[in-house]
Task: inverse folding
């Protein structure tokens, strides 16, 4: 539970980005945190796990049925939000793609 709270405290440092993911349903996991997102690129679960041996984090994207889609290891604490954002929400030509998706023009 302590690591889950620590990860939540990291995410709270930039709530505007975290809210853009549709962040919800946070749950503590063994040495980490899982939560649901409804991002532009990924809708499903994100699992963030701390690796004590390397003092780094790993991120996994899972479907709603908990099937693993993508996994990245070796993430420094100061990269955590940006890495999740790149996996869940942002992409090349993000502004234009969002406008096209939601007909904002």
Result:
């Amino acid at each position: 539970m302590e690591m889950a709270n620590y990860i939540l405290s990291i995410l709270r440092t930039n709530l505007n980005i975290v809210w853009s993911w549709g962040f919800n349903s946070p749950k503590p996991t063994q040495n980490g945190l899982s939560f649901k997102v409804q991002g532009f690129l990924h809708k499903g679960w994100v699992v963030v796990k701390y690796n004590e041996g390397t003092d780094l984090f790993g991120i996994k994207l899972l479907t709603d049925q908990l099937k693993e889609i993508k996994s990245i290891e070796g993430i420094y604490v100061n990269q955590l939000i940006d890495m999740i954002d790149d996996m869940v929400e942002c992409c090349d030509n993000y502004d234009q793609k969002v406008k096209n998706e939601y007909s904002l023009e």
